[in-house]
Amino acid sequence: MALIVYPVTYTSADARSYAFRSELPIRFACPTLPPGFNTNSDSLWNCNLCGSAREFYQPFERGDIIPFQMQLNDNYNNRPFAPNFGIKGLISSSDYLVKLELLDGDGNVLSDVAEDFCENYLVGWSEKVGSFQTWFVNTGLLPNNLKCFSIKITHYKRIAGVPSVEGVYYTEPFRQNDSCRNTVLLQSSYSNTDCNGNFYGFADAYLGTDTIRFYNSIRVWGSVDFVGESEERETNDRGIVLRQTIIKNYKIISGIYPPYYINKVSQTVRGNAVTVDGSEFKEFEFPDKSDENRMFELDLSFNKQCNIDNRSCNF
Fold it and tell me: Is the full-model pTM beyond 0.70?
């Protein structure tokens, strides 16, 4: 009988060969904020990180205008319905409700003056939603050597007339597409609000550069592929086509995305006048994720319709 010396030491060539315990990162619960915002700069989208999830950065192309909106409580302005204090910039340089900071990929502050990286910005008020804050990052204003960035948002309130921090939030990280992969730009708007509470109307009162309405704008990997078409027609008793509807079907086979980004894609393609690289399409669909996967494989389907009406008085 062979003598067994305990403890037995195993050196595994393949981790799946033996039962083992792996040290996994803590899975944070996602904060209750609009998709794309976080309360912790270290977790970011990793509140979704678990199992087969992968590292992810939102792609952008140089020159993109990226819209953001929050509806933080205004406990700073004496009259929120007629704001005197807005977002830190040339308009509110020393006293402000919100400060935006442009961060590089390592979290270093590059600027806290909104005009340095924003096309437009405002603190607004609407009877429909109350106070809201909207800004549009112009990536064409970013330093040429800046490939990755995020935005830190510091929200202030007044206590006995003294400014104090109410909350600090972070956007998800963005990374410039400098690869050979294609991206497409999805854009849309809504008549009033969407299911995430974003407000798309004009402000009743505001402090900022302009009253530009909020809209959705998001990039996904891939390209638009034509996959086929269908046709519906109406003819008369002589076989002449009176009306005809041609539906051209398209698809974007994109890649793997975390849940928060799919939520933003869903918000965009459920809006009005949805465009893909400037062309309007309809009836967007994408599949649910599989049960064993924490991320989504985006396979976006949509179509474009052409209606032909040949009816006249002498057909």
Answer: yes
